[in-house]
Amino acid sequence: MPVKKAIELAYEKGLDLVEISPNAEPPVCKIIDFGKFRFERERKAKEAKKNQKQVEIKEIRFTATIEKHDIEVKLKKAKEFIEEGNKVLFKLRFRGREIVHSDVGVQLFENIIKEMEDIAICEKKPYIEGKFLTMMMVGKKK
């Protein structure tokens, strides 16, 4: 229908002519109450935003001389973080000349990967960044 006729029809009904799909051929318009239309659109956007979950990155720090039980405690906490849907960043800090023995840290991270392979996958493989050996793990898709 011609635009002029559509505008007249909308004016007679006391409503607005709203362009719904401008990229379509021909463009799609509706005769509706624009205030109500805008309110509904904002409400849907707010509802969608409310249902989103932000993924956080939780950090767990180690040292090169960490004991077995301390590793178990930290891995238990890491598993809780992953089950909540968060990513876990493992950082191992080398102090002084410990950086010379970075293979100890890599071995520790390989053990962590094996320990957590049932619930998580390694998103970023272990890499050295300054004094830190860093690795990122994320939960497996269900």
How would you explain this protein's 3D organization?
This protein has 2 domains: 3-50, Roll (Ubiquitin-like (UB roll)); 57-139, 2-Layer Sandwich (Translation Initiation Factor IF3), CATH 3.30.110.10. The radius of gyration is 28 Å and the shape is rod-shaped. It starts with a helix and ends with a strand. The longest helix is centred in the first third of the chain and has 17 residues, at 34-50. By secondary structure, it is of the alpha+beta class. The chain is built from 4 helices and 6 strands.
Q: In one word, what is the shape? A: rod-shaped
- Global mean pLDDT: 90
CATH topology of the largest domain: Translation Initiation Factor IF3
- Name the CATH class of the largest domain: Alpha Beta
CATH superfamily heading of the largest domain = Translation initiation factor 3 (IF-3), C-terminal domain
- Gyration radius (Cα, Å) is 28 Å
CATH arch. level architecture of the largest domain? 2-Layer Sandwich
Order of helices and strands: HEEHEHEHEE
Count of folded domains: 2
Unreliable sequence segments: none
How is the biggest beta sheet arranged?
A: 4 strands, mixed
Strand content: 25-35%
Helix/strand-derived category reads: alpha+beta
Task: Give the strand line-up of the largest sheet.
Answer: 3-4-6-5
Quick structural gist:
Helix content is 42%, strand content 30%. The model has no long low-confidence stretch (mean pLDDT 90).
